[in-house]
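User: My instructor asked us to take a sequence, write out its structure as tokens, and then describe one feature of it. I'm not sure where to start. Here is the sequence I was given:
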Amino acid sequence: MSLHEALTRAKTEEDVKDAFIKALGLKGVNKGLIDIQTPEIWFEAKEAPSPPLLMFAQLLVYVRAARKRGEAIPGFLCVIDREKAALMPTEHAMPLLDDKTIVWPKAGSAADKSLAAQIAPTIETHFILYQIDGYEAEFIKAAKDAVREGRIIRTPITPDNLRQVFDKWVAMVGVELGVKREADYAVLFFADIMDDGRSAAMTNLPARLLFNGDRPVFIMGAEQYELATERGYRNFWNIYHRPPEQKHRHYLLERRDSLLPLDEQKFKGAFYTPLHIVDKAYDQLAATLGADWQQRYIVWDMCAGVGNLEAKHSNLRNVFMSTLDQADVTIMRSNPAFAGAEIFQYDYLNDDVTDFGQIDYDISGKVPQALRQAIADAKEGKQGAKPILLLINPPYAEAMNADNITDDGEKAGMKTGVAKTRVGHGMGDHGYAARELFAQFLHRIVRELPRAKLAMFSTLKYVNAPNFTEFRRDWTAQYLDGFIVHSKAFDGLKGNFPIGFLVWDLAVDLPAQSIGVIALDKFGEVVGQHTFFREPPRPPLADWIIRPRSNRTPAVPPKKRAIADNQHN
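Assistant: Let's start with the prediction itself. The structure tokens for your sequence are:
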């Protein structure tokens, strides 16, 4: 049966997909947010005839999201319906993904005519349209040639993703080399990335990359290392482009001493952020703030723990890390991965807060002068001042009530004493939110750093919980972008609920009526999209059911067993 005949019989979008998969003989097919996905070509499919520009707009939303996550992008894109197909090389669309004038929706399904109009000048000149009735053979040949070509858009290695690239190289390549000393990974890594597969881009490195036929061989002193298997090596270099650009090479080499493999056990504290989720956060920041965000922003993590969120940072000279416990400060200062960062002990919810809720850094004298100056310059809007990014994963502890008075001690998920902070003391008009430590962090941040960007891991109570209504009157920051991940990704969290990594601009007074996010499972894999609304579409039960007045008459609720016994009798 020809492709045209199969399409005339198609009744659903799945029928259309299956007809094209069979006609093109596609291998390694995956169906998900991207309708048909193979390593070489991605498809957006519709059952009904649809404008190609609108379909390409939706497909590019998914391409942009995959690029954020550092995934390999295929060499070709294709849109299909029951009447036609349009094919184009991905490289022609890549400049659109960096165009700051284009307003990208949070979800592919939200791509509309407005987005199609913005991409039209670029896309229309590069895609080839085939009407299946009449040009079936030409389309099939073009698509098969594209698959055979196997072109892939690779991610460049830059100062901003160096740590992430190195960790992936160790996991995919380094472990296959049988290296005896972990410190040698960094040396071999640079020998690999500073070679284009034919010749070295930099000479006089401590290690060299040679090839025995197609097999890579690493030489370091008298040692020779060969891969146990080559699959990881090929997969790694299908994702990344080498060598790095000339302008980055010497800076990358200067960072070599910080690229020691991280022992995750040293990082597993009370608020441990898994490193594979930190990876996703850094991809999100690059997509939201720009690829050079690590160079442009001063970063302050005021609840750093032992530094998980900074483990992937490649420019520690711009980073300030503070934490409550001096023992954690000692651990971070002894870790060469944080060389260059300013690390200090600081109790953000108590230190430097006056009795009137004002901030006075002279009270404790703990905040480094460079950070004080950066905060002052940012507040004044001083020309040339570096912007500040607050990158945090604050504690999620919750008090039973504002005074922590309970009848039977500590409750599950609720900690005694947590609300008794100097910041919490000044949140009397915020109701339930005053019990939450992460909300206390936000309360001080909004007042202390009103022009900063904020990127935070937390529950989503401050976004849409009914009992955070009073808090949201002050929380009017502009939502920029973000994702949610299953709570099971975090050690020590019980239950099943989303943890958000959301990026906000505190300087813009634009309360988000809704936020769109990508949803990840506990392994960091994309499983869908979701929208959260600031106010629920209808009032919660507590608002429209009148609660009976309490009285002194004791009432014991029946238990299932008692009910069953009565029924039995």
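For the description part of your assignment, you could build on this observation: The chain has a mean pLDDT of 84. Try explaining in your own words what that tells you about the chain.
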